Fold this sequence. Notes:
The chain is mainly alpha-helical. Helices cover 45% and strands 4% of the residues. The chain contains 15 helices and four strands. The chain has helices at 2-8, 23-29, 35-48, 55-68, 71-76, 92-106, 110-116, 119-126, 179-182, 222-226, 248-256, 259-285, 294-304, 311-321, 325-332, and strands spanning 155-157, 174-176, 213-216, 240-243. The strands form two sheets. It has a two-stranded antiparallel ribbon with strand order 1-2. The chain has a two-stranded antiparallel ribbon with strand order 3-4. The longest helix has 27 residues, at 259-285. It is elongated.
Amino acid sequence: xxxxxxxxxxxxxxxxxxxxxxxxxxxxxxxxxxxxxxxxxxxxxxxxxxxxxxxxxxxxxxxxxxxxxxxxxxxxxxxxxxxxxxxxxxxxxxxxxxxxxxxxxxxxxxxxxxxxxxxxxxxxxxxxxxxxxxxxxxxxxxxxxxxxxxxxxxxxxxxxxxxxxxxxxxxxxxxxxxxxxxxxxxxxxxxxxxxxxxxxxxxxxxxxxxxxxxxxxxxxxxxxxxxxxxxxxxxxxxxxxxxxxxxxxxxxxxxxxxxxxxxxxxxxxxxxxxxxxxxxxxxxxxxxxxxxxxxxxxxxxxxxxxxxxxxxxxxxxxxxxxxxxxxxxxxxxxxxxxxxx
Length: 341
């Protein structure tokens, strides 16, 4: 698309637009099955040829396109995003419509896939054995299809098309994400950069520090942990979520994807089950291992479940349980059936 903007539209003159297209774009332009592309190219070419659009304004749009496609720089604050409302009025509507439709149309055409590859191939590269993605890289637990799947999980336009149409087909802006994170009720079309006022994690960065989740709660919820029959009275906000690092990027991630609330929900769902698992492990090993206690049973669960879904949250929760003598005592009060006395 950069070629189309820089070498075709921004150089619009009396020549026909197809004379400026490169081989790949010309093959699509001349294909009768892609009439929408030809009509769009011609229409926007004529708008750029309008005498009331100065060369300086064309150059500005060219710079805007390049700027808005440097996704990592936008995320770290090196670049300031330019929004469609600031496009020149002569080209604004046509440009927004074209790029908004481009992702669903352009990347699905056979000629494009044959020349540039399939979205599934790109997806498989991202979730390959090397990266070992099994859960959503955003929330850490959502289901994500692997490269062995016949289809793929949806790509999220990290910078949404609604706000950043010029980056609609930029693969650096397409991140595999679970349905929850990508859904309207969570991220949807929210602008993660807040009009350039916020920094955000770049989804393909490998240099940011790992975020460890810490779970805190007080003794008031102990009855709810021991007895899950009281769940209807339990407030998930009794769990306090903290992170090992504090930064603008973490704040944006937590807010946009509702991470704290979702983690609180998972803790509320699993608080009794994870507690019972430690209790059952203690019951099965206490007679076999001299000096075995509740803390060792908890450590056993954390170590052996580290490959399971939500293991990071389970470990933080069980570590907190170890700080309550009442809960440790409850784990050790078992009978042969591993039930409370």
